[in-house]
Amino acid sequence: MKQFNGFFGCTKCYQPGESLKTKNNGTVHVYPYKIYNAEGPLRDHSRYHKDLLKCLESGNVFRGVMGPCILNELKYYYPIEGTMIDYMHTILEGVVRKLTEYWFDEKFSRENFSLRPYLTSINNNLKEIRVPKFIPRVPREINSIKYWKASEYLAFILYYALPLFRNRMKLNQINHLINLIISIEYLLKKFVDKTFLGSIQILLKDFMIGMSEIYGAHSMLSGIHELVHLTRDIKNIGNLNDFNCFQFENFNRELLRLVKSKSSLGIGLINSFESIKLSSFLNFKENSEGFSAKSQNKYNIKLNINQNLIDKDEKKNIDALFLSKSYSVIKYCKINGIFYSSLFYKKTKRCDFCIEFGSKFGLIKYFVTDNIDTYAVCKTLSKLHNPFYNPRIPDLKSSMNICLQTQSIFIAPVKDLEKCAFIEANNTIYVSNMNVSHLFN
Ligand SMILES: [Zn+2]
């Protein structure tokens, strides 16, 4: 197939796209949003074969088909219907990366949509943010954006964009962005509820329409266009997270890391490949929580907190939890492979103490354990409101809530907690219960 930057470059439909002139005398290939047939005319297996025949007969590219592909020899492979759009390349390294360019790149600094005037304050916010271990990397400044990995674009759009842009970005611009953020959140959940796909399609279409209105006709690149085909792919093939290139990228990185000498690159690559195969066979994978297991007893001796620090009322409630009345108060723990810390635990740049229990959010003050049961004593975070939704689909809100810290306490078994992201920016607390640990395991 033709590449995305040529006419008929979309593998899902027959929209040819348009070539637009750029300011520096170049061209860019765009796909304007077609209000009356946004998704079509669709390609399918039989049309693809007819196009392929025409291409072979004439020896020329026909409607984007450049020639046969070796995968066509597979008996049950339908290249059009069976090839999933890869969200890592299309959304994260395509749409989100381009948006960050519009917001922060100097060449757009005179545009209405630029956030350059806030660059320093946004960088300062990013430096302060402490993220839970389920986010693979701690946030880096915008200045290092050219080194960002796909997972950093994901973290930026899911966790940092709304807190950092609220009150900085123009209202129509942030409302437009919310459509994309909610769509990504829902489509990347551990269990995708397919009854929402119709509503997600409306959000994605609103996002596409708004794109040319806010960022101009040149912004309608192939990545933006491909969003229109996303929900159909999910219905027909499966979830975004089941078909993506993250694992191949990780594999490539591992491979390069293991090549030590540049002079014998070929031999190095073969040896690395063998080592990776062996290590995956032995299941030698680092725990995603990055925390080695220790015996429960050892922890307690090392992490005991003076019980005098416990508030009297809290102590009364805690005493009622344990029959023996003999328990330890500890600063962190690891239950079912998940690491939790507390407000008492200072030796980390991560924030693993913000949790959801039922419909409540909280910050873990400390843990109490009798080595059989472990409970978290939490400060309640009261949910103030969630302004991040499209008024056309008010039931589909972002996972990001604006919260207030209170003095009220609740106690919950650690095994029933869900970890959340806690983002503090410009004197406001944001909590997102979107957990992405399943995306990186
Ligand atoms: Zn298309």
TrEMBL record:
Q: PANTHER family given for it?
A: F5/8 TYPE C DOMAIN-CONTAINING PROTEIN-RELATED, F5_8 TYPE C DOMAIN-CONTAINING PROTEIN
Name listed for the protein in its UniProt record:
Transposase domain-containing protein
Lineage of the native species? Eukaryota, Metazoa, Spiralia, Gnathifera, Rotifera
